């Protein structure tokens, strides 16, 4: 697990302890379906934590355990110290009021206006109408919809609907916000706006956010920590930056490869050879971040080693707010030269990966 | 027959029909609605899961619905006598009409509720709603347009059924048409009855459609 041990001791908001979930067989003679296969994970207070995985990895089941929409077969789920699996009836409903949730398809009531949708959790909690009004108007203002109070969901765009969903989820002053693929039905631009809103809420209200997604892009922009799920298990977790930079598990690598700016471009992939022919160049991928991000690296390679460096592809990007770059270069594959280059990279603290050879 | 007499007969028949349909529709809906809600929410793994009861109630509903109405009218005469104190007349006719309305409404409400997006129920549960709050604030509220159309359909069907309660002296427009128009060979009465029924059904349907449109906020354009 990437650098998990290097993290400072954190105050947990949410803890999964040995959680398994088996759904009974739908037809006689079939085996039940094991959606969760022993999950241990802690979400620190005040963070935006992502859980990423392909569909069927178990991430939606996992998030539904947090507010007791599903019960685990084994294990404990602690929300701010309370074991949710032990709650039922009234005590479970009270807990649910302290955990907000937003959904992929928004799940707004079509028969209610924006105002009445946001008011619903408070109405359910039995708050008087006057207090509700005072409570939710600032919320609707915060998500930027104060001119749409009396509109119905059908009159709103997808992004606006999710804003209503967010305002509704915040109405009961939750300490934890669950986001179940909340941006998956939105276009990239709207997704960015919604993620920005979630980041603002996280920062200003100090709300812990657990964000379920299948999109690496979402994890990259919004989260500071991430857990990768596959086959009902968490296969890798840590700081988002570390996981992106040094993905350990095959699932993480596959998920990352689908993202633009990581991995090799297709046209290079087609040309890469495993062994050099005479006159071929070595293909090297450099990853730089933090202090190494702003070095005149190609110039130094040329000047200090006298290398003819070809730049094959490159990106400079941001992960969880930190800059990181990715540069694919090629230079002479002569063993002496490659040895020199390795020494140079080691000296400068650059992460260099020899990917293969090109002509 | 003079115009005056005809108008008198039609007015009386119309009143009896409206009275029977209104009262049986009202009582039938009042009883059918909770049964419909129960049918829609008591399946395996649902809000008020009681699969056994669901099957039993479903069976009774089906049995009532598959009994031809005219047979139901005669078959329950002893029961009618207990409830209405008599087995003939408009008041007595309300009993079989109500009995026929209950399962009809129940199935329509069940259908309307099952159309409500499951995601809304999940959202309400996540908010900490009680099962009863989910029924009133989510299921019934969201199903209102379909329920309005369903009740309109019920009333139109009841107007049709009410023609048959002439068999127990229920009166009404249908009975008028059969006794005067058919048995006494007075085609003008038959024609007048049919015209009044067409107008009545049209009016009910238009009112129902308008109500459903008012409830329906799903296709609003900004």
From TrEMBL, chain A:
Listed under GO cellular component are: plasma membrane
Can you supply a Gene Ontology BP term from the record?
amino acid transport
Tell me which residues make up the ABC transporter domain. Answer: 14-256
Keywords for this entry?
Answer: Amino-acid transport, ATP-binding, Cell membrane, Membrane, Nucleotide-binding, Translocase, Transport
Domain of life, source organism: Bacteria
Which Pfam families does the entry mention?
ABC_tran, NIL
Record family assignment: Belongs to the ABC transporter superfamily.
Protein's UniProt name: Cell division ATP-binding protein FtsE
- Give the species this sequence originates from: Breoghania corrubedonensis
Provide the taxonomic classification.
Bacteria, Pseudomonadati, Pseudomonadota, Alphaproteobacteria, Hyphomicrobiales
Automatic annotation (TrEMBL), chain B:
Compartments in which it is found: Cell membrane
Q: Which domain of life is it from?
A: Bacteria
Q: Which residues form the ABC transmembrane type-1 domain?
A: 14-206
Regions crossing the membrane: 20-41, 53-76, 147-169, 189-212
Name the GO terms of the biological process aspect: D-methionine transmembrane transport
Any matching Pfam family: BPD_transp_1
Q: Does the keyword Membrane apply?
A: yes
Matching NCBIfam families: PRK10782.1
Entry protein name: D-methionine transport system permease protein
This protein's species is: Breoghania corrubedonensis
């Amino acid at each position: 697990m990437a650098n998990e041990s290097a993290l400072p001791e954190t105050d947990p908001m949410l803890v999964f302890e040995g959680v398994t979930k088996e759904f009974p067989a739908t037809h006689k003679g079939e085996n039940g379906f094991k959606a969760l296969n022993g999950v241990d994970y802690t979400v620190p207070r005040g963070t935006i934590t992502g859980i990423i995985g392909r569909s069927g990895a178990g991430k939606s089941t996992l998030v539904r355990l947090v507010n007791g929409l599903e019960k685990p077969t084994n294990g404990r789920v602690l929300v701010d110290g309370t074991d949710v699996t032990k709650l039922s009836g009234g005590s479970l409903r009270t807990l649910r009021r302290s955990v907000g949730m937003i959904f992929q398809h928004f799940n707004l009531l079509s028969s209610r206006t924006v105002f009445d949708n946001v008011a619903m959790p408070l109405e359910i909690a039995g708050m008087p109408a006057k207090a509700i009004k005072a409570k939710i108007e600032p919320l609707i203002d915060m998500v930027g919809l104060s001119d749409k109070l009396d509109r119905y969901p059908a009159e709103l765009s997808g992004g606006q609907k999710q804003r209503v969903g967010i305002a509704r989820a915040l109405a009961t002053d939750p300490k934890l916000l669950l986001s179940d693929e909340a941006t998956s039905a939105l276009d990239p631009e709207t997704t960015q706006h919604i993620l920005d809103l979630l980041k603002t809420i996280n920062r200003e209200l100090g709300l812990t956010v657990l964000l379920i997604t299948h999109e690496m892009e979402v994890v990259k922009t919004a989260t500071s920590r991430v857990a990768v799920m596959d086959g009902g298990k968490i296969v890798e977790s840590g700081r988002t930056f570390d996981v992106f930079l040094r993905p350990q598990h095959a699932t993480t690598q596959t998920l990352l490869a689908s993202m633009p700016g990581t991995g090799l471009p297709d046209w290079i992939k087609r040309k890469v050879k495993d062994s050099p022919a005479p006159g071929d160049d070595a293909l090297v991928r450099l990853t730089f971040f933090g202090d190494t991000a702003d070095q005149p690296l190609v110039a130094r390679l040329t000047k200090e080693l006298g290398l003819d460096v070809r730049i094959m592809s490159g990106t400079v990007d941001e992960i969880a707010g930190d800059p990181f770059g990715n540069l694919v270069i090629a230079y002479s594959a002569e063993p002496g030269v490659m040895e020199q280059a390795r020494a140079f990279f080691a000296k400068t603290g650059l992460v260099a990966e020899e990917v293969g050879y090109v002509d | 027959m003079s115009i005056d007499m005809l108008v008198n007969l039609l007015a009386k028949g119309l009143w009896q029909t409206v009275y029977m349909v209104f009262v049986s529709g009202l009582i039938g809906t009042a009883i059918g609605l909770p049964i419909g809600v129960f049918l829609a929410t008591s399946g395996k793994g649902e809000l008020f899961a009681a699969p056994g009861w669901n099957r039993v109630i479903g069976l009774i509903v089906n049995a009532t619905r598959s009994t031809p109405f005219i047979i139901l009218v005669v078959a329950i005469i002893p029961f009618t006598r207990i409830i209405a104190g008599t087995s003939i007349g408009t008041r007595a006719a309300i009993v079989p009409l109500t009995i026929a309305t209950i399962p009809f409404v129940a199935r329509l409400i069940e259908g309307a509720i099952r159309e409500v997006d499951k995601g809304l129920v999940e959202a309400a549960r996540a908010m900490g709603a009680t099962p009863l709050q989910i029924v009133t604030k989510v299921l019934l509220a969201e199903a209102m347009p379909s329920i309005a159309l369903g009740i309109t359909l019920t009333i139109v069907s009841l107007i049709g059924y009410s023609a048959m309660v002439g068999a127990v002296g229920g009166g009404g427009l249908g009975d008028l048409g059969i006794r005067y128009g058919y048995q006494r060979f007075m085609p003008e009465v038959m024609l007048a009855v049919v015209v009044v029924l067409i107008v009545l059904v049209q009016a009910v349907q238009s009112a129902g459609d308008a109500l459903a449109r008012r409830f329906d906020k799903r296709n609003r354009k900004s």
